[in-house]
Amino acid sequence: MTALNNNNNSRVTDSNKVSFIFDGKKYFGFDGDTVASALLRNNIKIVGRSFKYHRPRGIYTCGIEEPNALVQILSENDEPNTRATVKKIYSGIKILSQNRWPSLENDFGYINNLLSPLFSAGFYYKTFMGPKGFWKNIYEPLIRRSAGLGKPPKEFKSKSIHHHHNVDIVIVGAGLNGLLAASKFIDTDYDVLILEQDNILGGSLNSSQKIKTIDNLDTRAWIKKTEDLIKKSKNIKILKNTLATSYNQINHIIALEDNSVGKPLASHKPELILHKIRTKHTILSNGHIERLISFRNNDLPGIMLAGSFEKYIFRYGVIPEAEPIIFTNNSSTFSLLKSLVDLGCKPKAYIDARDESSIEKGTKNILEKNKIPFYFGSEVEGCDGNKKLETISIRNKEKKIEKVSGSMLCISGGLNPDVHLFTQSKGLIKWDEKYLTFKPETAFQNTITLGSANGNFNFKRVIEEINEKLSLFKINELKIDLESDCPEDLNIIELWETNNEKKSFWSKSFIDIQNDVTTKDLHQAVSEGFDRIEHLKRFTTNSMGTDQGKISSINSLGIVSKILKKNISEVGTTIYRPPYAPLSFSAIAGRSTYEFYDPTRKTSIHSWHVKNRAIFEDVGQWKRPWYFKKNDKETMYEAVQRESKELRNAAGILDGSTLGKIEIKGKDALEFVNLIYTNAFTKMKPMTARYALMLGEDGMIKDDGIVCKINDQHFIVTTTTGGAAKVLSDMEEYAQTEWPHLNVYLNSITEQFSTFNISGPKSRAIMRKVFSDVDFSNDKFPFMSFKKVNYLDTEVRILRASFTGELGYEIYVTPKYGLELWEKFFRYGENLGLIPYGTETMHLLRAEKGYIVVGQDTDGTVTPLDLNLNWMIGKNKKDFIGKRSLSRSDTSRKGRKQLVGILAVDRSKIIEEGQHVVESSSIPSKIKFPVKYLGHITSSYHSPTLNHYVAMAMIEGGNNLIGKKFYVTQNQSSENISVEIVKPVFLDPENKRLLS
Amino acid sequence: MLVINCPYCGERDQSEFSNGGEAHVARPKNPETLDDKKWSEYVFIRLNPKGIFNERWVHTHGCRKWFNAIRNTSTDEILKVYKLNEEPPSIDEFDTTLKTPSGEPDLGSGNFTVKK
Question: Residue A439, exposed/middle/buried by CB under 10 A (0-12, 13-18, 19+)?
Fold first, then answer.
């Protein structure tokens, strides 16, 4: 049989024909059709293959809850797993079915269905256990290849944006209850936001003709009138195509607006808008979802939920089949039956699990009057057919099997209030014995649930409920009449699954259609001990698909409760977690993508570095020159060796602008600095500087830097590049929380200065040329002193300090003149051999001198004592952060790891960073006992000046091991390198160069 | 995401703030006089109760001021915020009976979404 057109009676009009391409073939639908309704118009029943068994699958529902009809949209960056039941078509849309190869009709993976005894519950956990190595090499690649349904898009640039709202009331769902509630707020002082997932208002009013008139108006006329009134009201805003996906703490709602419904993606407009809404009250009128019944082969194409079938008729104007068979356990299918008959269609059979005594009079009248075969107290045992529904086996009230042929079966297993958002908000739900479903019980936030979302399936009670629940807002009462010829209330009996007569591999009774979980899997999981519902869910993967089991999760609770012989409320539900429906990562990312993901910080010299072939290193958000390539062929190793050598022979300059700089001012600045750093600053002379350590309260090194004392009320300190923000935060914390009596002011001045570190034997000569009126002699400008110098009418600070072990100066200049001064250095210094150098060379040079890098040679378990930096500790100070911890039993014990130098006995050997220092000359091929390890290499570089590797290590009791011989492991060999332990200073131990 | 009422700036989203753990753990005035155990209690030991908790917050992406808050950790409700120099409000001001979303037991957490 074929589908019929009912557009005249629906929300789709015949005027605009739209062509679309499905699996390479061209079809026609109408403007307003979803992919699913358009496919149904074209009598396409199979739209995909199932996840595990590759069984042919059709369209099961007509909305967000769809488990089967997931397609890939080729014309939209290959967007996978798109619900065909929601996605609207437009001219030229290209759609591809998923999870089949080579084609939908003939799918190779279908062999899985025959192998299905292998794929029962817990298959993955039981099968992929051993032997060793199989997981990595065989199982994982295999699973990865067959995982998922659609293929991920290859390239995609998001244009999504985020909107923020602060409102008084959010109404989720603009169906009957949402619109009635909204109409109460028209022209009030409340700021109201309405979220509607569809592109039209009215919700399920559009899906059936259950309600004839509202306020004496035809239903659609009433929707239009109400929408117009709402639009005129200045305090209410409607967001259509907007799905509320999360309901978080403090009435925070996330909603996703699809900005491109029914049209191709625009190249310059956001395709998705993520709304972040903070509200005072939330009204949930998001309706209900119909559920299925499990029976043999309840997944065959041609089986559809009854409410969805009706929605296709009235919302999308397509009658998928003129003579469907209806199978129900409740009274809600009356309206489908009546609608079909009114439209001149005649259902082939009507099967109701309820006894004849509880069937509504109206239903019986229609069935008898139209001579429709009916089966009361009966159920569908199962279905058969080749790739689509052909025969239906009915178990009648005498428990005899009767066969009926048919191509469509409409089923209804009852209605579930859509409690997802309510439970996300931490509201409690309760099992309702009358409607056999969970409904909202106690709200945790300011949440009001209305209508079927509240488990109220009685039209007559709608107005009363709204007036009662919204009475707290002190607004006018509604006085509206609803007219309906459907049964007033929902009548339902319990039926979760029917017994299978037939046993074969092919015969399966599904509970989760998307994840191919059968009712048998549930039984098996319980018998294997997974009787807690959260365990059972994960063991069977029940309700873990993209639909999150919207039409089946309550059924699985019903089945499990029967197996366990417990009440459903004792079984409980799994936790409903956001998002309500899958939401694209691009929506979450918004504009925070690519260059906008994280800001890039560049120094004032950056353009010069780029021009001079700098290779950059990311340090936090900063771009720092790592090394400078002399020419395109030069490797990093060569460049670093060259830079190091030339600096020690002449001079080099480093862009140190990224170093954190903090200004400390105030009457008590001296006391504050004394408390923050380990060193003693009281006797320090003004205009001198000191290398200083900062500890945590646990005594471990947190950061290092140089403290410059301008006077007792004014200090400038530097921090490591990565530690700048944290150091400032820590200082502020102590200033505010522990020492509020101290008068200190802290200010980050990192960006206020460009900083250059010039060092090397020629640096004094270069400085004299650049700053010709400054005396750079050793007497007048000793090591660790600084001067303020006038440069182009700005104050430049010059500090004599060095991190390379050579004579060196640090220059602090306003960024405005940073580049100019940098270039001036090269104008005057180039013929003296001045070169630019990067961070890698800096690290090499400092390692030759045994200077540490916090975070490389230390790791948060290292005290200054472990590094033999005792001289930096102001022992006579009464207190500083971490002081007390340095005498704790653990920090003062012997045998802690200490910093030492490491040299290979054969100087030509390469020592790698991170390798272990051990006592044996080789590592056994099979390790039976742990190999004793003393510590590890923290830094290792090839020194071009010494022409061999120099390394530092943190090893147990290192100070007492100087002169001893040990071994260092290698990455690619089990032979270890023989090394000797030395003091961690490899070059110029007398500091002649530094103080020259 | 919580809404936190900064005593200096007013209500802002939680993402502007950082949590500083238990409040009212004063740094000892004379650390040298403490034995290892007492000192390590200050450095390492913090409360983590279920229910009413005085804790510290800092408005990192705002005024950068530290302040204290009383939060019910089982409901995530912030009951009161107060400045550092203010006396902590008496616990008696608040309902100290546990009001978890799901009415779960005093100890531990569990999956209780359904009202029995």
Answer: buried
Name residue, tokens 């008696």. Answer: B92
pLDDT under 70 in chain A at which residues? 1, 102, 109, 114-133, 135, 138-139, 141-148
Report the C-alpha gap between A185 and A177 in whole angstroms.
13
Cα angle at A343 between A337 and A349, to 5 degrees? 35
ipTM of the complex: 0.92
Angle at A766 between CA A765 and CA A767, to 5 degrees: 95
Judge whether A516 and A57 are in contact, CB under 8 Å.
Answer: no
User: Would you state the structure tokens that stand for residue A901, as one six-digit string?
Assistant: 């130098």
Q: What local confidence, expressed as pLDDT, does residue B110 receive?
A: 45
Contact residues, A window 432-471, toward B, CB-based 8 Å cutoff: 438, 441-442, 444
CA-CA distance, A175 to A198, in Å (whole number)?
A: 10
The pair of three-digit structure tokens given for residue A243, joined into one six-digit string? 């799905």
CA proximity to A704, closest of A685, A725, A678, A686: A678
Type of residue numbered A497: E
pTM for the full predicted model: 0.89
According to the model, what pLDDT value does residue B99 have? Answer: 63
Partner B, chain A 732-761, Cβ-Cβ below 8 Å: 732-733, 736-738, 740
More confident of the two residues A164 and B100: A164
Token pair recorded at residue A620: 């936090």
Torsion angle defined by CA atoms of residues A522, A526, A529 and A530, in that order, rounded to the nearest 10 degrees: 50
Helical packing angle, A519-527 and A553-564, nearest 10°:
40
* Matching residue, tokens 């104007």: A317
Over residues A914-965, the pLDDT tens digits come to 999 999 999 888 888 888 999 999 999 999 999 999 999 999 999 999 999 9
**Which of A11-25, A892-906, B17-31, B32-46 bottoms out in mean pLDDT, i.e. has the lowest?**
A11-25
Cβ proximity of A214 and A480 under 8 Å? yes
* pLDDT recorded at residue A130: 62
Taking only residues 50 to 109 of chain B, the set having a beta carbon closer than 8 angstroms to any beta carbon of chain A reads 56, 58, 60, 64-66, 75-76, 84-85, 101-103
Distance from CA of A568 to the nearest CA of B (A): 10
C-alpha distances in Å from residue A969, one per residue of A453, A926, A957, A976, A984: 66, 15, 19, 5, 20
- Nearest 10 degrees: Cα torsion A529, A532, A535, A541: 100
Decide: helix, strand or coil at residue A568: helix
